[in-house]
Amino acid sequence: MIVMVRILLTLMGGRHDNKPYHPIDNREGVIQMGLAENQLCFDLIQKWIRRNPKASICTAKGVHEFKNIAIFQDYHGFKEFRQAVTNFIHKARGGRVTFDPSRIVMSGGATGANEIVMSCDAFLVPSPCYPVFPREGLISNLIFCETHLDDSFTIIHRVI
User: Any idea where the Aminotransferase class I/classII large domain is (predicted)?
Assistant: First the structure.
């Protein structure tokens, strides 16, 4: 990936930084596609955090710091982010579900998730999802099960 990014940056001459795409203002601009992190919606996330401070794990004061949470480097997943995920799931399921954040591993993408699973492990992938995920599941002999999350979703043995 690093080599690909370097090649892409060399070929583009850094144009992704100084000529970014915008659907109205710069339709000829460049979208950086050589990174694993989604950097296309940081501005939208910042606006949402400002409008919904109680729903966010960030505060309005720290709105610019969310990138440190969104693009974490801790290979287990940023501790505060894992705690926020467990809090969110607990709240979303009406307090009926609890998770130990130390037993949650965050992944930077579908490939990373496939590489860390062991036989008989399971992880939920919301649907619709990353379109290549079913193909990548074949690499690690996973069975791909789309999980449509709605109010009546329950985890049962058949799903896992």
Answer: 31-135
Identify the residue with better confidence: 16 or 111. 111
CA 14 to chain centre: 25
Cβ contacts of residue 17 below 8 Å, gap of 6+? 32
